[in-house]
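Lay summary

Proteins are chains of building blocks that fold into shapes. Our project writes down both the chain and a compact code for its shape. Here are two examples, one after the other.
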Amino acid sequence: MVIQRPIVSEKSAMVTEKNNQYVFRVLPDANKREVKKAVEQLFEVKVKEVRVLNVKGKRKRFGGRMGQRSDWRKAYVRLHPEYHIDFGGGA
């Protein structure tokens, strides 16, 4: 599966409300076509546009040593206006 998990944050919530976009963490070698196909099959929606970007890992201190978190890839998926995805986070 190309999609690893949805990213739920304040920024992703704002993007969802304004532009009907959803944010996912995807495999490092995933391309736009693969992400589009995976989202359409998994959530049964129609994808309008996909943007992918690489996120560089931060340099962090682990105990007394410096280390670096792993790099990862993020995808912004815009759906057609009549579609939406519900992740079931309602409380």
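And here is the second example, written the same way.
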Amino acid sequence: METLLIEIRNPKGINLLRDLEEMDIIKILKQEEAPKPPQKLSELLRGSISAEEAEKFNEYIQESRKEWERNF
């Protein structure tokens, strides 16, 4: 099953959709039943580590980069 968001541009379109629902081909979901778009990963992870941990991690990354940039 696949859920789609549809913009109806012509009032006749809603009648067609209702007919399809009556034939048990589709199911019309109310606005509150419609699935929410997935949350961005950055929003999901925001605040998952403290500012202190983030600073330590950033320092570690900077030191790691310096090691790669050294001439051998």
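What can we say about the second shape? The chain is about 50% helix and 0% strand.
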